[in-house]
Design goal:
globular; mainly beta; seven-stranded mixed beta sheet; about 0% helix; single chain
């Protein structure tokens, strides 16, 4: 059974940092792009960051460029999202996602991802 499990969320003050982790199990995703999305109450799920299979290509939403960094460790089946200079508008449930096969690139659309985690809450206080 394929599972993506996020961790590392929590409550942080504005300007602080958090590191989210996503552990993949049930199959290997070392050849597949992976991404992070987020969803705030009353809003649609939005793209945050994506990374291609090798880690050599990354893609960020404009709202997080320069503050967030996505990385992966294929040997450990892990994907990370380092979030710095957090703002209250970053508050949301953050989801890890994985493509089902190798397509190349680092896509930014939810429809491009087959597998999803349950999410981890990030709350940034002002």
């Amino acid at each position: 059974q394929v599972q993506l499990v996020e961790s590392g969320g929590g409550l942080v003050q504005a300007g602080g940092s958090l590191r989210l982790s996503c552990a993949a199990s049930g199959r290997t995703f070392s050849s597949n792009a992976m991404g992070w999305f987020r969803q705030a109450p009353g809003k649609e799920r939005e793209f945050v960051a994506a990374i291609n299979w090798s880690g050599g290509s990354t893609h960020y939403a404009d709202s997080v460029k320069g503050r967030f960094s996505i990385s992966r460790d294929n040997a450990k089946s892990m994907v990370y999202l380092q979030m710095n200079s957090l703002k209250p508008e970053d508050s949301a449930v953050y989801y890890c996602a994985a493509q089902n096969r190798h397509y190349g690139g680092a896509p930014n659309r939810p429809i491009d991802y087959r597998y999803w985690g349950q999410g981890t809450q990030v709350t940034v206080s002002s």
